[in-house]
Amino acid sequence: MKSLKTLVSLSALAVCMGAASMANAFSLSPINTPFTAAGTIVVKSPSSLQVPVTCSVTFTGNVTAAGEGSITGVTVGGSNSLCGLPQIQGTPWTLKATGLTGVNATGTVDNVGYKITATGVIPSNCGLSTIVVGYNNTTKVLTATNQPLAGSCTVQSLSVTVVSGGTTPITVIP
User: In the predicted model, what is the mean pLDDT of residues 96-100?
Assistant: First the structure.
């Protein structure tokens, strides 16, 4: 009877360990590497009366020892006056890889959010939300399309090119 209990316990432990490893089956590489990602973002919010606003955006961060991206800095700019108003919320944002098919990876970014509280502009409180992203291991372009944020806001599109601060480009690996 004791050996049956041991067998059941070991089986349960093996199943749990397998499930845990499957949950983290994809990661960013190389670990402990800084990165910058620059490009464009198009957002809609109450501040823009739901009209799309195109801005330049730069993300800075690091690939953590856990193989996740930690986005610690977000800079938004551009010719539209609304581009200079967002107050970024929720950083660090966590980028997690969730899948890989060929060179195309999928993932999520947690805690995405910003506020606009400028005088004379309808306030917006966008996020904190999780958005779905795509990443191409060959072109190093991170994208998102039509991702809703809490507060009646939308990341209509995102396209940024990731540049590694190390000697090896950032890639998603199984």
Answer: 98
Report the distance separating Cα 132 and Cα 164, nearest Å: 21
The angle at the Cα of 127, spanning 125 to 133, to the nearest 5 degrees, equals: 140
Residue 2 lies in a domain: no
Secondary structure letter of residue 82 according to DSSP: G
Q: How many domains does the chain have?
A: 1
Q: Up-side HSE of residue 153: CA atoms within 13 Å toward CB?
A: 28
* Domain of residue 123, CATH code: 2.40.160.20
Q: How far apart are CA 109 and CA 126, in angstroms?
A: 14
Q: Which domain holds residue 104?
A: 25-173
CA 155: distance to chain centroid? 12
Q: How confident is the model at residue 24 (pLDDT cuts 50, 70, 90)?
A: low
Answer yes or no: is 12 within a domain: no
Distance CA 130, CA 105 (A): 17
Distance CA 52, CA 95 (A): 24
Separation of alpha carbons 61 and 54, rounded Å: 23
103 falls within a domain = yes
What phi-psi label fits residue 67: left (phi over 0), alpha (psi between -120 and 50 degrees) or beta? left
pLDDT, one tens digit per residue, over 99-124 is: 999 999 999 999 999 999 999 999 99
Residue 166 lies in a domain: yes
